[in-house]
Design a protein that fits this description.
The protein has 4 helices and 22 strands. It is mainly β. The longest helix is centred in the first third of the chain and has 18 residues.
């Protein structure tokens, strides 16, 4: 009986040894840490320094994909905040646009980032010395081809660790993408030219942001589609960059437009679904947004156009602008797809004194602009 027990034990041990046998596997040498990181991406533009008197009115580009390439050759996609994503690079010379966040980027080393760009459209004009605005009849549009420039310089190679929360700012150098001759004319747009794109870690070294904050994302203008008093969150849907959710706190500033609309300066009163509003936010390291400032522009949804006036108005009731941003009414939009970014729009004034200054709570010197009967450009 004892012999049979010992024999059975030896038999089980031999089976276990056989089941664990086989050729030894090579040790992992790259991307072996496991886990995932959270990576957010914003976009800015480096200013163009063209010959004197060249006016860049708009530089529209569509962002299609953002792809990281690991040291093993594996591609990782960073999802965009909107399926159709358009930006005006002239606005991004001072602002940052939020491109997207992924919370599932595998930890490891990445050698490069590729950004697919398409449909570049540049609207510009020339300027006669001594005159303001554009020379008569000089507003011109030029387009270019699709490209997917790759960033291989610093901060690449980029190492991401498990549970890390960080960000990158992609910068498009407009001077490298455009060819401008000595006659002030943009002759070519090339998104695939050398050094069109660069990147830097967020927050930037010169930033005043607090710990846990990555970047300022300002002038997010659109229709308020969601308000949650319990979480103090507001959702604004933009026309070309998707929706953004920002969370208010005790430091959030509400602009004087709240009281102008007979609303109090508080989250529960000033923020109302269906409004047209502009948000200033800060992007947090986890991909969420904190609401810095809320500025209601209209109490009801409507079509809005933001743009650059091309010349001093010659009529008291009409002027022309090139649109840099849009707000589309939630229903019954009169703009729709008829005025994409970069379009020249002729504005006819319906109100006898339509102009005002949106102070956003800042101190503005006494001026003659508010309530003026026609547009004046100084």
């Amino acid at each position: 009986m004892n012999f049979r027990i010992v024999f059975a034990a030896l038999l089980l041990l031999s089976v276990a040894l056989v089941s664990c046998s086989g050729s030894p596997k090579s040790p992992c040498t790259t991307n072996c840490v496991g886990g995932t990181a959270t990576l957010s991406v914003t976009m800015t533009a480096a200013p163009l320094t063209p010959p004197p008197n060249t006016n860049l009115l708009s530089f529209i580009v569509d962002v299609n994909t953002i792809t990281l390439t690991s040291s093993t050759g594996t591609n990782v996609n960073i999802p965009l905040n909107n399926t159709s994503f358009s930006v005006d690079l002239t606005k991004l010379q001072s602002d940052s646009a939020f491109l997207g966040t992924s919370a599932t980027v595998p930890a490891g080393s990445y050698t490069s980032m590729s950004v697919s760009l398409s449909s570049p459209v540049v609207t510009f004009c020339t300027q006669t010395a001594g005159n303001t605005g554009c020379a008569s009849g000089s507003v011109t549009t030029i387009s270019g081809a699709t490209a997917a420039p790759k960033i291989t310089t610093a901060p690449f190679p980029l190492t991401l660790t498990a549970n890390q929360k960080t960000g990158l700012a992609v910068t498009l150098n407009t001077g490298n993408a455009l060819t401008v001759n000595t006659s002030q004319v943009v002759t070519a747009v090339n998104l695939g030219a050398a050094n069109v794109l660069s990147a830097n870690n967020l927050p930037s070294a010169s930033s005043s942001l607090a710990a846990g904050h990555l970047d300022f994302v300002e002038d997010v203008t659109g229709v308020v589609t969601g308000v949650n008093a319990a979480t103090q969150s507001v959702t604004v849907k933009t026309a070309t960059r998707g929706s953004l959710i920002a969370i208010a706190n005790s430091s959030t500033v509400f602009s004087p437009n709240c009281t102008a609309f007979n609303l109090s300066l508080s989250f529960s009163s000033c923020i109302v679904q269906g409004q047209v509003a502009s948000l200033d936010t800060v992007l947090n390291s986890d991909g969420t947004f904190t609401l810095l400032e809320y500025d209601p522009l209209s109490t009801t949804t409507a079509d809005w156009i933001e743009g650059i006036v091309t010349a001093t108005a010659s009529s008291p009731t009409q002027f022309t602008l090139v649109d840099n941003d849009l707000v589309l009414a939630s229903s019954g939009s009169l703009i729709g797809s008829s005025a994409p970014l970069g379009t020249q729009v002729k504005v006819t004034l319906a109100s006898p004194k339509p102009f005002l200054v949106d102070t956003k709570g800042l101190t503005v010197p006494v001026n003659n602009f508010t309530g003026c009967k026609q547009f004046h450009r100084n």
